[in-house]
Amino acid sequence: MQQNNVMKTPSVLFFDVNETLLELTALKKSVTTALNGREELVPLWFSTLLHYSLVENVTGDYKDFSEIGVAALQMVAAGNDITITKEQAEDAVIKPFKSLMPYKEVKQALEALRDQGFKLVALTNSSTSGLAEKLAYAGIKDNFDTLLSCETVGAFKPSLEVYSWALSKMNVQADDAMMIAAHGWDITGAKKAGMQTTFISRPGKQMYPLAQKPDYTVDTLDGLVDIFSNK
Fold this sequence. Notes:
Blueprint: E1 2-3, E2 12-15, H1 25-34, H2 42-59, H3 65-79, H4 86-97, H5 106-115, E3 119-124, H6 128-138, E4 146-149, H7 160-169, E5 177-181, H8 184-192, E6 196-200, E7 216-218, H9 221-229
Parallel strand pairs: 2-3, 2-5, 3-4, 5-6, 6-7
Antiparallel strand pairs: 1-7
């Protein structure tokens, strides 16, 4: 666990969802099957999904995150001589995206953070309906005070517009809020927006070395519970 100097204990905790709270195991399996068992292509698919969500940001367009995931799967398949229809890509992405399970410590950690008096907010690139459905499936929807989707803004994280909107929605100042994520790009955006940050170093996840460091780095969400318990 790494921690830097934080000015004050935040009142509102914002959580990324995919890979931060929810494992992508089921989704990765379905995408692997669609790619003829080419498991090594799954990271390329996910990075392509993120890449083109940023293309949508830059061009001022907006499409559902799952829709971009379907398009990204078609692109990766075509680039590797794999035949896949749009319908097959949709079957591999859309339903599995809503059927993810939480990391083993997440539910108990969220409950502990609420007991410590924090307001908990889910802030995701997924659609509004998709967010509610996936958190309900994972059994953690009721742990949150508010569910926020970037769909409302028409832009994806790490657009600074998203963080600004989320802070305004919760009526909280940036330095009194914390973004918690397993993605370096999300932490980078939140830091630029003036928020406190915690990076969860899930397997294979790294911070962007050229970005400002997060206030805390933990291996699991339990680590953040411990930090606040000791403040």
